[in-house]
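Progress note, sequence design subtask.
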């Protein structure tokens, strides 16, 4: 957390730093205060105190960055996840005050991660009753979905993407591929590369939308050329299969190498490189690797 916050401070002028010294230090026990507050009237009083200090922090230019750091202190310093179910309205107001879409989506993602971890319950302990855990898992997924919807209401692309994912996989809500496709399309049109790559897959498989080879290629190429590693892998697969585009093993290998340049897909790309390499001669492999290294990604915006 300190490593996350300190770079933010370098952008502040001395006057702002003085304001920060008065605002930030008293705000450190925010999550601790909420964790201790169990009675309704006490929570109300302490929430007012939280609001007071967050409003003071809001006057500082590095506010959003610091507030995000405070949120992480809450997660890992005082096990904020134990509060997320019990004090959801309080935490909801706290993040609403912070106004950070990233923080809102982060809370929802954290809840979903806890729910999908079958070895632990909502406070990090192994569940004693499997049936009880199933109920807790459902509650965590539903609560996480509420956070995603809150982020979406803020006009946050990350929130729309998270809601789309939840509808697609049926997490915290009944699975609805058509609704997921509608939301993925919405954020893809705003140049969100993850959503664009997903739209390519949806049109390839015909899930929630009609099967459309041209749209599958268009969305996948759009995202891959702008640096999305998963889209690059998908394009490599499309080129090797030859279902929606002319088969080209050399081009498929090139895109597998390009996917390896992305840290998120670096490990995954290795198996695809090995698979595509078998279809190319040593000379073709070297050429494909060179083309991938020289490839220049396009700006994210279509314009």
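Output:
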């Amino acid at each position: 957390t300190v490593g996350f916050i300190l770079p933010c401070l370098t952008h502040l002028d001395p006057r702002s730093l003085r304001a920060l010294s008065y605002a930030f230090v008293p705000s450190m026990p925010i999550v601790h205060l909420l964790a201790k507050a169990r009675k309704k009237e006490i929570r109300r009083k302490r929430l007012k105190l939280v609001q007071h200090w967050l409003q003071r922090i809001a006057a500082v230019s590095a506010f959003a960055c610091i507030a995000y750091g405070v949120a992480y202190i809450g997660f890992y310093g005082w096990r904020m996840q134990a509060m997320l179910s019990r004090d959801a309205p309080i935490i909801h107001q706290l993040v609403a005050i912070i106004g950070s879409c990233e923080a809102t989506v982060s809370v929802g993602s954290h809840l979903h991660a806890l729910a999908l971890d079958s070895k632990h319950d909502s406070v990090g302990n192994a569940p004693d009753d499997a049936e009880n855990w199933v109920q807790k898992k459902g509650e965590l997924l539903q609560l996480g979905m509420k956070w995603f919807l809150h982020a979406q209401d803020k006009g946050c692309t990350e929130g729309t993407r998270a809601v789309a994912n939840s509808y697609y996989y049926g997490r915290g809500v009944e699975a609805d591929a058509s609704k997921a496709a509608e939301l993925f399309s919405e954020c893809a049109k705003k140049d969100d590369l993850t959503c664009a790559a997903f739209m390519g897959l949806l049109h390839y498989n015909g899930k929630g939308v009609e099967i459309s080879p041209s749209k599958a290629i268009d969305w996948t190429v759009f995202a891959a050329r702008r640096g999305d590693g998963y889209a690059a892998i998908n394009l490599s697969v499309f080129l090797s299969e030859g279902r929606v585009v002319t088969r080209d093993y050399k081009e498929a290998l090139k895109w597998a190498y390009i996917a390896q340049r992305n840290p998120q897909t670096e490990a995954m790309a290795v198996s695809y490189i090995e698979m595509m390499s078998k279809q190319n001669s040593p000379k073709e492999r070297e050429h494909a690797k060179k083309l991938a290294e020289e490839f220049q990604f396009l700006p994210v915006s279509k314009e």
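The CA atoms of residues 157 and 192 lie 8 Å apart. Work on this subtask will continue into the next period as scheduled.
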